[in-house]
Amino acid sequence: MTSQDGPGMATPVFYIGLHDIHRKDPITSDDIDLSYNTGYDMITTPITNNAFREHAASVVSNPAGSLISCLSTEYTSLTPTVSTPSMIGLVSPWVDVASKNPRVAHLSRQVLSMEVAYAAFCGISNVVLPPLFRGKDVPDHSAVSRYASAVASATTIGPYLQLLVPFPMDDQPIYPESTFTHSLSASIEDVRGDTTNASDPLSPWDAWNFVRSTCNYHAKLAIALNLPRLLPSEQVQSRWYSEPLRLLHLPTQSFAPNPKGHPVLSKAHQALLTRYMRLQQVPWLLLSGTESLQNSAAAQADPTPAEAANVPIEQVSSSSHLAYLRYFQMNQPPLPPLARFAQGYQDYLQSPLQPLTDNLESITYEVFEKDPIKYEWYEKAVALALQDLYAELQRPIVLAVVGAGRGPLMTRSLLASASTKVPIVPYAVEKNPNAFVLLQNRNAIDPLWDNRVTLIKSDMRSWSGPVVSSQPAKIDIMVSELLGSFADNELSPECLDGAQHLLHPSHGVSIPQSYTAWVTPIASPRIHSDLVHRPSSDIHKYDLPYVAMLHQYAFLSFSSEPLPPGPGGLLAYPPAIKQCWEFAHPLPPPVITASEARRTANPSAPGLDGGDGWNEHNVRRCELVFPITTRGVCHGLAGYFETVLYKPRDASVTAVELSTNPNSMDEKSRDMISWFPIYFPLKTPVYVPDGGEVEVVMERRTDDRKVWYTWQVVVWVEIGGVRQRVGVSEVGSSKENGCLM
């Protein structure tokens, strides 16, 4: 059995296994062959047999007993075989490592260690641990703590073993046929750990969060999640979506019969599976609660007419559930353009580009140029600007693409000129000497360019400007694509400020005209685990904003207005994503004048962070408060941007905008793929209680040589009418890895 990941696949492959809840002995090679012939990809197996359970029960009931005997052929028939990789091992579910009775807990941990070690020896790569949640009771914190300690010890066994920790999705009662547990023996049942009956849909997630925190986000830990018949709220579903899911357990209670008596999933379950099965590491599906594998295989044989007439409609074999899941797999909707483009990059952390100091490779330009939306929107913006200016000036429009790259914006500008019949005087400015060769080639052979474009090999900030009819001229329209994932993180403000002296002072237009940075707190345990397990020599791993196609994460703060009901009638709420700051171009002339004065003169005071302070007009700070209705853990901040490319002078004409903000991207630039979000990590995750608030404090700072960000999260709660600070993160700072000017 191998893991099938999402990259490169149009639709996910479902790996489906069978869990026989009645089996008490390890499976045989015949069982594995039968499961394959039935259509399953894997099967669960106990590691020990019923004789071992009876031995453990006798030790528990004997006051003089203190040690469980070593495994022998009397207690297990499991041995290493070529079929072992197709097995999911089950640690005996009757052990209770969370028991408040020290003796029971100690003996249970002995069993846990022995069985996990033996499974690893046999070559089993995935083992399901005994459950913490049993029946209708919720374990108290002491029981959770004892369980977490046992799991932490198990992570030290077997270097290649994945430990699957079973959890219910919410606090609905768990029945024996819908979980990995069996009835406990009387000797152990009498000393079950403390429990509580309080209703709390997030109590299983709370317990999981404690377990994985105790284990320091260990890479060997994953979740076996039990899906109930009635799904919890969308927020609870999203919380589990962000966690390391390896197994989705589908007991028969998760299905409902259709009018013909065949098992099907509800619309809500279908929507959940469609979403979960698009994770980069696609979770496996595990069916349970049906009849045994042998009976299921026998049910596949064609019955005689008399036999078929006597089969009750409610008697459905596990193969019916399997057939339904295969049908559901074949009818998965295609991935949207952004998801297809991002396959293989989900949650992969990349350092932001340094376009002012590094010359980009051709492949980097090529990736950007594949965007089906961005350049079309740029063409619309240029066309509207050309029409507005030509109506005023009645002459050819001087248009410069600054940072022309391989020329896509110039091509779109020429197309806009052709479609509007507005003549232009085109300039393409590019500092990258390698890209400049392609611009020269394109100008010579592209019939649209036709050697009409004046090419300038220069940094836009040091260019002396256009010359029209042998006379120095100003630019009427300056077009650029300098935006980064957080709008200004690739120094668009500094670049355009430096080129503003080239723009006509009265009617000059910058495309884009303005852009805003947006942020929201998120739970991103997968990314945090990645950072935790990077080498300790990477001392700045938490002090760098990363570009990442955020995929397996959950929003923590939501707006109060719900979205239209989703499948199954579940309500969902849009995330609360707030604006940090804004930049607009061109700047008012007094701002540029003051900046130049600080650069060339001897100011009375230095810049706040060093230098002369001539770039301090591009410093920003925000303090944003996000309400947290449902508790969670903040691992970092997700950043987005919105930009107004051009707002026409005619107010009745819609502005041309781009957005990566999830709340507005579908409206403004659906299917755009040029930018991934940005991620600001927290070194230590911050827990936020129900009804709390997350305050995000961010700054954009500069010392005239580079630009960097600082970020911090503060948690507030109201206690007795007084707002109190209950959590503070370290201050993240990208100063050591700032963007050089």
From TrEMBL:
What PROSITE patterns does its record include?
Answer: SAM_MT_PRMT (PS51678)
Which residues carry the site feature described as Critical for specifying symmetric addition of methyl groups?
A: F368
Residues forming the PRMT5 arginine-N-methyltransferase domain are: 340-511
Key word Glycoprotein present:
no
One GO term describing the cellular component: nucleus
Tell me where in this chain the PRMT5 TIM barrel domain is found: 39-330
* Keywords assigned: Methyltransferase, S-adenosyl-L-methionine, Transferase
Quick one: a GO biological-process term for this protein?
methylation
Keyword field contains Transferase: yes
Domain PRMT5 oligomerisation positions: 514-718
Q: Name one GO molecular function term.
A: protein-arginine N-methyltransferase activity
Question: Which family is this protein grouped under?
Answer: Belongs to the class I-like SAM-binding methyltransferase superfamily.
Q: What PANTHER family does this protein's entry cite?
A: PROTEIN ARGININE N-METHYLTRANSFERASE 5
State what protein this is by name. Protein arginine N-methyltransferase
